[in-house]
What we know:
The protein has 258 residues and is an alpha/beta fold. It has helices spanning 31-45, 76-82, 85-92, 109-116, 146-151, 153-162, 168-174, 186-198, 202-214, 220-233, 238-249; strands at residues 6-12, 15-20, 52-56, 61-63, 98-102, 105-107, 119-123, 127-129, 166-167, 179-181. Helix content is 44%, strand content 16%.
Amino acid sequence: MTYTCIETYMPRPRVGAIKLHRPDVLNALSLQTMIELVDAFSAFDSDPEIRCIVLHGSEKAFAAGADISEMTDATTVTMLERDQFARWERIRQTKTPVIAAVSGYALGGGCELAMVCDMIVASDTAQFGQPEINIGVMPGAGGTQRLTRAVGKALAMEMVLTGRPISAQQALQAGLVNRVVPVQWYLEEAYALAEEVASKAPIASRLAKESVLKSFSTTLEVGMEFERKNFYLLFATDDQKEGMAAFIEKRKAQWKGK
């Protein structure tokens, strides 16, 4: 696919990066943008050389929200037929670990897109918010669900019902982001974290990610059973044998992803 709304590249070995690139509209998430994101995530996810993905926008805006111009005249029927949130689900199903590098505005769909990722590195200028209430609607891509699980009921309710954003430091204190760094370093910090993740055994990383996410959709008992099965499954991999042998032999493991 030829991309018009995003760019893809490899900033570090084994790390794939996707840049939202609609600077004239602060990276608003149009339907075309979502189509291209699904394609890019799928391509990286199926590439055995890519072991971690970084998603980012510009210093000014990660993404300022959905492209409202595409929804102004929509009806319930047209929204159902468009089924735009199916694309969000496909992004969520990415098996490769994903890091969002967020600077500037991450509002509405932008905040929800960051939350679909597994970790968030924020610049000190980042703002996270769900302002949909100000245009007569509500979050529809996870803003009432993932946000509540990340920051708790009280703060999520305030953000959703007032539309007010929170700062990067507030997001860090609430547990929404992993770390906050000066804006000039936020991408390098995300790349460094991605490179560290990419240096680990890739199958183990994928199953570990899957197990952590399972905890949000099931009981502790079912989650523990799921975790144990994934743990046992890794003993069928060459990487498990290599990793334990390298530990005993006091050398660096050479992962094959097999």
